Amino acid sequence: MNSSRIFGLVVRIVALIFGRGVSTLGIGLAVLAASAWYAGTASAQDVLPPNRGGFTVSMGSPSTWRWAAGFSAGVHRGDDSKVTAYGNLGVYRDILNPMTAALGVLGETYVGTRGAFTGTGGGVDGGARVGLYSPAMRLAFGGDFNARDRELDFFISMIHPFQRGGILVPGGALRID
Description:
By secondary structure, the chain is of the alpha+beta class. The chain is about 20% helix and about 45% strand.
């Protein structure tokens, strides 16, 4: 119903109830009450969910903080070839807009063992890394401080996600240092 039909209907109802001697103020109050009731019961456009042909209003923004934990194994070529095994914890924070995944700061710590091929007699090894990481380019670079050697080295990494994660399923990434 349009507003002029509603106004006419309200005037007729007020005239029937109160008779012909109704003042303009009485009609105005009745129209105000009717319009308030109509606005409260009227609904706007029907919003359909996306699976029924509606539009997605917002999916939210990705988090600016990302946490990671992992395990790595390899060979360290220092004095002689040594087997390495490390556990690591890391954090990544976007510097630029997280929607673009263009650039962020990467920080991580690692602890493990570095020993000869015949055993793990080398002892505990550990350190920390700080650098810049671009998820869009899949490249990271920065400084790596090794506590055992007391050295600061340059690192460059290629980090490629091979499985998306979610709330119940952890994701994964392949990292080449």
